[in-house]
Amino acid sequence: MKLKYILVFVFVIFQVKNYGQTSNEDILFSVAEEPVYVSEFLRVYNKNLDLVQDESQKDVDEYLTLYTNYKLKLKEAKALGFHEKPSYQRELGNYRKQLAKSYISDSKVTEALVEEAYERISNDVKANHILVRVDESATPADTLAAYNQVLKLRERALSEGFEKVRKEVHNGKTIYGEELGYFTGFKMVYKFENVAYNTPVGEISQPFRTRFGYHFIKVFDKRKARGERTVAHIMLTLQNKDSLSGNPEERIQEIYKKIQQGEDFEALAKQFSEDKNSAPRGGKLKPFSGGQLSVPIFEEVAFGLDSIGVVSTPFKSKFGWHIVKLYGKKPVAPFQEIKPELEVKVKRDDRSKIIDEALHSKLKKRYNISNEQPALDYFTSILNNDFFARKWVLPEDFSGDKPLVKIGKKQLNYIDFGDYLVKNQRHNRSRTTLRKIAESNYETFLNTNLVKYQEDNLEYENEEFADIVGEYRDGLLLFDLMETSIWNAAKTDSIEVKDFYEANKNKYFIPERINAVVASSNKQKTLKKVSKLLEEGMDLDKIKNLVNSNNKVDVIFTSGIMAANHQALPEDFVFAQGISKIQSHNTGYVVVQVKEILPKDMQSFEDAKGTVISDYQTHKEEKWLNTLRDKYSVIINEAALQTVKEQIKNQ
Description:
Layout: H1 2-12, E1 27-31, E2 34-37, H2 38-47, H3 60-79, H4 86-100, H5 107-121, E3 123-133, H6 140-160, H7 162-169, E4 175-183, H8 190-198, E5 208-210, E6 213-224, E7 228-237, H9 248-260, H10 265-272, E8 288-289, H11 296-304, E9 315-316, E10 320-330, H12 335-348, H13 351-366, H14 375-382, E11 403-407, E12 410-413, H15 414-423, H16 434-456, H17 458-461, H18 463-487, H19 489-492, H20 494-503, E13 509-510, E14 513-521, H21 524-535, H22 540-547, E15 556-563, E16 578-579, E17 583-585, E18 588-598, E19 601-602, H23 605-631, E20 634-636, H24 638-649
Antiparallel strand pairs: 1-2, 1-20, 3-4, 3-6, 5-6, 7-8, 7-10, 9-10, 11-12, 13-19, 14-15, 14-18, 16-18, 17-18
Helix pairs in contact: 1-18, 3-18, 4-18, 5-12, 6-7, 13-16, 14-16, 20-23
């Protein structure tokens, strides 16, 4: 599904809403007599200028071809009725609903919570807590008993010592006394987080309630968050299949000795690290912050390096053996940089309740909704104890047609709230008054309908929202069309795909490779000795023991089948059987023993299938676009096109 949304975005970059063009505007081109104006094309071109990866797409003629193709596909999708498919309507509706969440909120309250969240993630708190469990649905008597119990425990903690009491009372069932260590914003429920950050170091908080029960905490320390680290690593997997490399632990120690001897970390990572993603970059990883990695020991080692350039000793994780080098230390990102991410988090956790309350208040003002609701007297009068047993029904003489509340242009009647009450009955362990049931249910009913009304009318209230929905609507339409017409071709056109392979099989081949041993060192003199021993036919293990003596690693060997771009080989290495001259590679030198040259060979259909299908889809799309051009005439206004080129040139 993620891939689908990425591809929809690719389609969306061509879609921009037409803002009230008049018949007097210049038409750039038309598709089946449907005009596309110069102003629209210029907006699209300029909007997406920085998004395109292919420089050719910045050429006006090339971009015009892409845009006419886009319009042709859109025309065909609508002609085939793709916009009427239930699956399309459902997915568009889901997207619209998800997008609406970003536009339905109280921005001032959200902003304040985001700023508070930033302050929290910028600082860590170390605290322990004692919790007396009590369910949210507990009876008033049980709730009071839990509260009185937590008060007594707090009094003991103040007089006897928090840690002593915590350890004594913990039973893991009704009372928990837990060490929490350091934590930061979003790691605890919001109420707990608030108390932790607002309690001074060394003090014990007042009791407070969360959905788990009653707590009190002791704060032991507060510190600045550890921020971000940038490191590189050399990694050897635990399942090392290269028998000439020996045990992974032994090999990582060899590499570490070479680093201690002054050899370049990045060069060694490029040549020996088995993390194929980072090895070409000298082992460099993307920056990460505390708690972000799934390998705690790696994180602890990385944050334990205090000086730029320092290298860790080898250590083992669940993925293999590592050596880590520190490149950068960075505090928590600036507020503006991390703000979008924080907004998402704020709207997902308990803070969202505060945002919701502010939104409901704002909408009541916008739609002139009174806080008084006289109809609640009537609903209280028709409720009875059957409601607690989920057996309550509306009375036969229920006044369903009476107006209840009007939101904008939408009138809600008694029957709407009456049906809501019937559907939302539930068993209650602690019975409350019928009046409170009517009031709390009406509040939820009203808030739900306020938000729904705004959501249903967002296109009329917010132009930006309308534009984005329109863009996605067309992008999703084209995705469905392409998936049906082109991308599923491999499933339905298996014979045609094979025929395409046969007609183009000279394009699909395995490149020339070598079966070789590569000796790597930063000393030419040592490699001369290795080269001579290889010529004499000495066993590699003996060579290794001979040249790597006195607890010192001068040479590391790599062996196997290698293509020209293998990380162990120098650039432009010429394949020739025998032992090569000593050549520079990275910041050191290598000598290569080529045992066998494996010639370039044709790939079978099965081996090349993935590439063949991709090429076949491109081929089919080109043919399909030609048929669309025959079906829907495209007429270019050359004079207008020249004007467009001049405007873009002078931008």
